[in-house]
Write a structure and sequence with these properties.
heterodimer; A: mainly alpha; B: Rossmann fold; 11 helices; membrane (chain A); transmembrane transporter activity (chain A); ABC_transp_permease (chain A)
Chain lengths: 349, 353
C-alpha cells in the first residue's frame, strides 16, 4: 500500500472506528446512536448560535494546548496549566473591574496582567527546577490546588466576601455586540483572534528565533546545550514562564470573554488538564494544537446538545466523546495494522 | 504529516456528521408542535448533577410531581432537566432549554446567578426561576430563597438538648452568605437551648471534597463532639462515612449527624436497626418548585419578585427524627418553631449578628 494511501486511510479509519464504537456504547445502553450523532452534529453546527458557542469553547483550549505543547517542546512537563490558567483568569478579572481606562489601554493591560500572573505561577516550578532540581511535575501538580484556594480567597477579598467578582468594564471586555447579534446571543468573543495570534507567535518563536532554538536545544539535551555555551538554568525558567503566560492568557479568555468575571471555584476547570490531550493530539506543533483544540472544543460543545436533543445521559456522552478522541489519538495502532496488512499481501503475490 | 492527518480527521468527522444529519432531520418539527397547549417545565442543575441527594434532586422531584399532576411526559413540551458539568455550560444549557420552548425554567443554585442574569436580558420572553439566589430587577426572573437559618436554629436547639458531651460541631461547605445562614441559626439555637454549649465550627472550603469532610468530622468526634451538623453538600458525605464507621466499630459510640437540605436518613443507615442521623434541616425545594410552577401555569409567574420560604409556610423545617430524640427535645423544638413563626425569636441571618 502506498504511503499516501496509508496517510489518508489512518485518520479516516480512526474516526470511523471511534464513531462505530461510540455507536455501540449508545446502542448497548439503550439509546439511538443516529439520534445521538445528529444531536452531536447539531450541537456543533446547527446554526450561528451553536457555531459561536463552539468557537468560544475552542478558544481557551488553544491556549491550554499551546502552554502544554510549549513546555513539552522545551523538555518540560507542565501539568500546572490548570493553576496558571486560574491565576490568569483572576488577574484579568481583577484588572478588568478595578480600573477604568480607555479600551485601547485597558484590554491589552488586562491581557498582559493575565499573562504575567500565569507566568509568575509557572516561574515557581521553573525556578525550583533550575536551581534545586525539584521535578516540575510535582510542583506544578501541587500548585494547581494552591491556585484554586488562593484564587477563592482573593475573590472573597476583591468582592468583599461575595461569591464572585463584579463584571469587568466594557472597556476590558473581549465581547462585542456585533458578534452577539451575528450569532444570536452566543458568547462568542474576539479572544479567538488573540488565540490565533498566539499560535503564530509560538511557531515563530520556536522555529524562527535564536531564543526558540536555544529553548528546544535545552529540551533535547541539557549537557550538550551547556557545553555549547547556553545558559541552561535561564532557559528552563524562561520556558516555564512562557508556557505559563500562554496558560494565563487562556484564563483571560474566560475572564474577559466567556464569563466576564470569576466565581469561586469548587473544583478545577478541566481546561488545563484537557490541554495536555490537546497538545499531544497536535503533536506539540502550534498548528497541530489548533486542530486538536478545534476537535476538543467542537466535541465538547456538541456533546452538550446530546442529553438535550437525544436524551442521552451526560455520562454516556462523555464515554462516546472520549472514545472518539481515543481512536484519533491511537492512529499509530491503525498505521501499524495497515502496514502489516500491506506486507502480507505483497508476500502472497 | 501530522497536520494533514488532523485536517483529514476533522474533515471526515464533518462529512460523517452531515450524512447523519441528513438522515434524522424529519422528526423534530413534529415534536415541537405539541408544546403549545400544555405548560412545560424544565430545570438545569449546577455542577452537582441531578442525583446530588440535595437541591438539584429535590427540584427535579418537585418538577416530576408537577408533571405527573398535569399529565405531562418527560421531553419536549413536558418536563425535562439538563445537567451541567462545568461552569461554562450554564448559559449554553439555559439557552438550549429556551430554544426548546419550555415555558418555565428552573436554575438551581447560586452558582447560576450570572448565567441567569445574562440570558434573562437576552431572552425577555423566557420565564426563569432561580433557586437559593437573588437575581434582582429582572421582570422575567423569580428568585426563590429559603430561610435556612430558621430551620438551622431548630437543629441547634435539638443538638444542644441531645448532646451528652456538651460539645457539638458544624461543618460548612464554602465560606459565604449562604452557608453563613446555616451556621448563624445553628449557633443561635444551640446557645439558646444551652448557654454553656461548646460549638466547634470548621469549613471544608469545598462542596465536593468528601475526604476533607471526613477529616474534619474525625477531628471533631475525636475532640469530644457528639453531634455534628453539616451544610457542605457532597463534602458532608465524609461526615456520614466517619460517623457510620465509628458506629460499626462500637455500637455504643455516641455519634450523631444532622443532615441538610433533604431528609438524609437513608444516608445514615449503619444496619437495619441503627442509624446515625438525628434529624435533617430541610429546604423544601420540591414544594417551592411545584408551587412556582403552578403559579406560572395559571399565568401568575412571580417575575421580578423575591419569594422567601421560611418556617411559617413550611418551606423549611426539620425532618422526622424517627425516635432518635427525646420527647423533651421534640417539645423544645416545637416551642422554638412556634416562637419563630410568631416573631418572638428573631434568628440571626449571618454569624456574628
Amino acid at each position: 500500500m502506498s504511503k499516501r494511501a496509508v496517510n489518508i486511510l489512518v485518520p479516516l479509519i480512526s474516526i470511523i472506528l471511534g464513531l462505530v464504537i461510540g455507536a455501540i456504547v449508545m446502542a448497548v445502553s439503550g439509546f439511538n446512536p443516529i439520534d445521538g450523532y445528529v444531536a452531536l452534529w447539531n450541537g456543533i453546527f446547527m446554526d450561528s448560535y451553536t457555531m459561536g458557542e463552539t468557537i468560544r469553547q475552542i478558544t481557551p483550549y488553544i491556549f491550554s494546548g499551546l502552554a502544554v505543547a510549549f513546555a513539552f517542546r522545551t523538555g518540560l512537563f507542565n501539568i500546572g496549566v490548570e493553576g496558571q490558567l486560574i491565576m490568569g483568569w483572576l488577574a484579568a478579572a481583577w484588572v478588568g473591574q478595578a480600573f477604568e481606562l480607555p479600551k485601547i489601554i485597558h484590554l491589552p493591560l488586562a491581557l498582559l496582567a493575565a499573562a504575567a500572573a500565569g507566568a509568575l505561577w509557572a516561574f515557581i516550578p521553573g525556578f525550583l527546577k533550575a536551581k534545586l532540581q525539584v521535578h516540575e511535575v510535582i510542583v506544578t501538580i501541587m500548585l494547581n490546588y494552591t491556585a484554586i484556594h488562593v484564587a477563592n480567597a482573593l475573590i472573597g477579598v476583591i468582592s468583599g466576601g461575595g461569591e464572585r467578582t463584579d463584571k469587568v468594564h466594557e472597556s476590558a471586555s473581549l465581547r462585542a455586540h456585533y458578534l452577539e447579534a451575528m450569532t444570536d446571543y452566543s458568547r462568542l468573543h474576539w479572544g479567538i483572534l488573540v488565540a490565533l495570534l498566539a499560535v503564530v507567535f509560538m511557531w515563530f518563536l520556536l522555529e524562527r528565533t535564536t531564543l526558540g532554538y536555544e529553548l528546544k536545544a535545552v529540551g533535547f539535551n541539557k549537557n550538550a546545550s551547556e557545553y555549547a555555551g547556553m545558559n541552561v538554568k535561564k532557559n528552563i525558567i524562561l520556558a516555564m514562564v512562557i508556557s505559563g503566560a500562554f496558560a494565563g492568557l487562556g484564563g483571560a479568555m474566560e475572564a474577559l470573554g466567556t464569563f466576564e468575571n470569576i466565581s469561586k471555584l469548587h473544583a478545577a476547570t478541566g481546561i488545563g488538564f484537557d490541554g495536555i490531550a490537546v497538545a499531544l493530539l497536535g503533536a506539540n506543533q502550534p498548528f497541530g494544537v489548533l486542530l486538536g483544540a478545534i476537535l476538543f472544543g467542537a466535541l465538547k460543545n456538541g456533546g452538550l446538545n446530546m442529553p438535550s436533543e437525544a436524551g442521552i445521559p451526560t455520562e454516556i456522552v462523555s464515554i462516546v466523546i472520549a472514545l472518539i478522541i481515543f481512536f484519533i489519538a491511537s492512529g499509530y495502532i491503525i498505521r501499524v495494522a495497515l502496514e502489516r496488512f500491506g506486507k502480507k499481501r505483497k508476500e502472497e503475490k | 504529516m501530522k497536520k494533514r492527518k488532523f485536517g483529514l480527521a476533522l474533515a471526515s468527522i464533518f462529512a460523517a456528521g452531515s450524512i447523519l444529519a441528513a438522515c434524522g432531520g424529519g422528526e423534530e418539527t413534529e415534536k415541537k408542535e405539541s408544546s403549545e397547549d400544555t405548560f412545560s417545565v424544565a430545570m438545569i442543575t449546577d455542577t452537582g448533577g441531578v442525583d446530588d441527594k440535595s437541591f438539584n434532586q429535590s427540584t427535579w422531584e418537585g418538577i416530576q410531581e408537577f408533571g405527573k399532576e398535569n399529565g405531562l411526559e418527560k421531553g419536549d413540551g413536558g418536563f425535562d432537566y439538563l445537567q451541567s458539568s462545568a461552569e461554562s455550560e450554564y448559559v449554553t444549557n439555559l439557552n438550549n432549554l429556551i430554544r426548546r420552548d419550555f415555558d418555565l425554567i428552573f436554575a438551581v443554585g447560586f452558582a447560576l446567578h450570572n448565567a441567569v442574569a445574562e440570558v434573562a436580558d437576552q431572552q425577555p420572553e423566557a420565564q426563569i426561576a432561580i433557586i437559593d439566589e437573588v437575581v434582582p430587577d429582572k421582570e422575567n426572573v423569580a428568585s426563590i430563597m429559603f430561610r435556612a437559618n430558621e430551620a438551622s436554629y431548630l437543629a441547634g436547639v435539638a443538638a444542644a438538648q441531645e448532646s451528652k458531651s456538651g460539645k457539638i460541631g458544624f461543618i460548612g461547605g464554602m465560606t459565604g452568605e449562604i452557608i453563613g445562614g446555616f451556621e448563624a441559626g445553628y449557633v443561635a439555637g444551640a446557645k439558646a437551648a444551652n448557654p454553656d454549649i461548646e460549638i466547634d465550627i470548621e469549613y471544608a472550603e469545598s462542596f465536593t471534597d468528601a475526604a476533607k469532610g471526613q477529616q474534619i468530622a474525625k477531628r471533631m468526634y475525636d475532640s469530644g463532639a457528639d453531634i455534628i451538623f453539616h451544610a457542605a453538600g457532597n463534602a458532608g458525605n465524609g461526615l456520614f462515612t466517619e460517623a457510620k464507621e465509628r458506629k460499626q466499630k462500637d455500637p455504643d459510640a455516641n455519634v450523631w449527624v444532622i443532615g441538610v437540605d433533604r431528609d438524609q436518613y437513608d444516608e445514615g443507615k449503619v444496619d437495619d436497626s441503627t442509624n446515625v442521623v438525628l434529624t435533617s434541616v430541610l429546604k423544601r425545594v420540591d414544594v417551592a418548585a411545584k408551587e412556582v410552577a403552578n403559579q406560572a401555569k395559571e399565568g401568575n409567574f412571580p417575575g421580578g419578585e423575591l419569594i422567601t420560604y421560611g418556617l411559617a409556610d413550611e418551606g423549611v423545617g426539620l425532618a422526622d427524627p424517627r425516635g432518635a430524640v427525646s420527647e423533651e427535645t421534640v417539645a423544645a423544638v416545637e416551642d422554638a418553631r412556634q416562637k419563630i413563626i410568631d416573631g418572638e425569636i428573631t434568628v440571626p441571618e449571618q454569624p456574628g449578628e
